[in-house]
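Page 42, continued from yesterday. The earlier attempt failed because a stray header line got pasted into the input along with the sequence. Redoing it now with the clean sequence only.
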Amino acid sequence: MNRCNKFPETGNSLLAAFYKNLLSVLDPVLAQGLLVPSRKIIRPMISCLLIDDDPAVLFYIQNFIKQTPFLNLVASHQSPNEALKTLETEHIQLIFMDIGLPEINGIEFSRILNSMDWVTTPRVIFITSFEHFALDGYKVNAVDYLLKPVSYESFLEAALKAKTQLDVTRAPAYIDSDFVFLRVEFELVKIYLKNILYLEGFKDYVKVYTTTSNTYIKALTTMKSLEEKLPSGSFIRVHRSFIVSADKIDSITKNTVKIGKAIIPISTQYRDDFKKFTDKWF
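This time it went through. Structure tokens are written below.
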């Protein structure tokens, strides 16, 4: 629970500098970045969306996001309906959202987001003037809630909490030509690509089904991360939640593929790409 009685000091560059130094202690990976041969530092960024019908709140939360080195503001909106358009076209990982919004309140909007078919459901940090909304926020799995007027201290605390959660779901997959290492709980597990049947994506993890097990492996990564690393000639995405191994497909209909006893849907979004992929077989 975050409480503050101090109006935000949006122009306080010394405070921002202090917290950037604090990050180097709390998050050495972020502070050091990922070294590549050119010696450039790549800093992971969390894509953010801001929703609040109060222009003053939009202004100072925008400034807070800009001051925070691991956050990237994609868009700001004053209503959920406007925000949906951005959510449909952009990969949003974190939403800062007022509860008392026009049209639909933030709690109900968050419930709608949780019920939608996302590869990874965006995390939500609520902004509110009323402390009694905190319990409702936790019922919809909000990362945290910020009580207006929001200080940078409480904002950063909530943002770091979201980053910790997202870092788990963005755990990298290490892929060689023949196998992949996936993070499973507290260890990296080696899986040969030839044994993968299909992948099923959920909110915080991916289920990996293989020929060597009657169940699945629960990997702490995302579909997007795996899709980018798996060889495109061997694996094809057929649905927001499914990637299949091409040589494991037993049969195909207009809307499904069958792998063993599993019937996997082909969504409209991926149907054309799947057809192009399979046209070479005929």
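Notes: Residues 1-11, 24-43 have pLDDT under 50 and may be disordered.
Reminder to self: strip header lines before submitting.
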